[in-house]
Amino acid sequence: MIQEKRLPLDNLESFPGRWLGGLSLIIAPILLVVAALLRIQFNFFFPDQLAAYETHPTLMLTSYSLFFIGMVLLFPAVLILVQLISKNKPRLGFWGGLLVIVGLFARAFHSGVDHFAFQIVKSETVDVAADFIGDFYGMFHIVNILNFSILFGWIVLAIGAYLSKVFGWFRSLALGLMFALAIGVLKGTNMTTIISLIGLCLAFPPLGVQVLKSGTKPKLKAVLFYIFIIVLVLCSWLFMSEMERPH
Asked: Do residues 210 and 223 share a domain?
């Protein structure tokens, strides 16, 4: 594999930046693995996922929330990898990044459907929610045409990482395993899920560490800005939690 010191880690200050990108490379795979493990005890398909939410609402909500956050954080993580690939293979960087990011938008849509289905379980019954999701699978939506990007984007990105010498063959192959991560709403955890996410953990966090170690410490203004964003997110969450409480 390519030695760490040979990676072209200079000039990574454009969006998302060295620190946001580096931290995302480390945190996103960890959150996805934790999310998958939290629901590994339940059957993979949606009727069982809905039934699991009825009996373990906090566990399932935590699992699906962490999965969504992990997918969001993959956006800056992928952008860092695209920048590195594009130094030698700009076309592969462009197409790999475009396909993966479009696929992340599709997964965000699926997460919204997951949340809505859980609310039906809460307000109605599991059977009503299962019938709704069963009907939904047969409906057409513009997101359906993006499914190919979820599958093939990771393969293109992995090929780009290998040919540009950002990753060696092993980590490129590990990254490419993400193409097997299941598509759609209310997907549980199976062996394919675990293999795909382990591959992501082999590829992304080591790169994140390299990216963080290659630059200087963030300036105080940057740290304060990140703290402000975190506080803003927490305040928004507390506000929405208060609004949802019955009065």
From this structure: no
Q: Which residue has the higher pLDDT, 135 or 106?
A: 106
**Do 19 and 141 share a domain, yes or no?**
yes
| pLDDT of res. 1 | 39
Q: Within this chain, do residues 159 and 211 fall inside the same structural domain, yes or no?
A: yes
Q: Is the pTM of this model over 0.90?
A: no
What's the CA gap between 139 and 177, in Å, rounded? 29
Measured CA to CA, the distance from residue 231 to residue 10 in angstroms comes to 31
Residue 1, token pair as written in the block: 């594999």
Complete DSSP assignment for the chain: ---GGGS--SS--STT-HHHHHHHHHHHHHHHHHHHHHTTTS-SSHHHHHHHHHH-HHHHHHHHHHHHHHHHHHHHHHHHHHHHHHTT-HHHHHHHHHHHHHHHHHHHHHHHHHHHHHHHHHHS-HHHHHHHHHHHHTS--GGGGGHHHHHHHHHHHHHHHHHTTSS-HHHHHHHHGGGGSPPSSS----HHHHHHHHHHHHHHHHHHHHHHHTSPPPPHHHHHHHHHHHHHHHHHHHHHHHHHS--
